Amino acid sequence: QVHLVESGGGLVQPGGSLRLSCAASGFAFNSYWMSWVRQAPGKGLEWVSQQGPGGVSTAYTDSVKGRFTISRDGAKNTMYLQINSLKSEDTAAYYCVKHLDRVPGFDVWGQGTLITVSS
Fold first, then answer.
1. Which pLDDT band holds residue 48 (cuts at 50, 70, 90)?
2. 8 near 110, Cβ under 8 Å?
3. Rg of the chain (C-alpha set)
4. Is 29 helix (H, G, I), strand (E, B) or coil?
5. How far is it, in rounded angstroms, from Cα 8 to Cα 115?
6. DSSP code of 27?
């Protein structure tokens, strides 16, 4: 069974840093595109970043470029999101998602991890 489990969220002050982790199981993790998607309180889903199979071809939404870094460890079946220079507008639930195979869209979501940026 396919599972994605996020961890690493928490309360952090503006300007701080966090590293989110996503532990994957039940599929060939390093063969799939993976993304991070977030949802701020009272708002819709926002795609944040994606990375191709084997850790190549990364992309970010404009608002996080230069502050967020996506990565993965294929040996550990784990994806990461390093978040620096946190802003209040980064407050959201962050979800790890698995892309469908060779067609657009996502088919598996984690339960999410909450980041709250506040002084």
1. very high
2. no
3. 13
4. helix
5. 8
6. S
Three-state SS at 55: helix
Residue whose C-alpha is closest to residue 18's, from 92, 81, 74: 81
Angstrom distances, CA of residue 5 to CA of 40, 51, 55, 87: 19, 17, 19, 24
What is the average per-residue pLDDT within 74-84?
A: 97
∠ CA 100-104-109, rounded to 5°: 45
Positive or negative, the CA dihedral 53, 49, 82, 62 is: positive
Q: Which residue has the tokens 């998602």?
A: 97
Residues belonging to the chain:
119
Which tens digits make up the pLDDT trace of 3-17?
Answer: 999 999 999 999 999
Q: Which of 88, 83, 22 is nearest to 48 (CA)?
A: 83
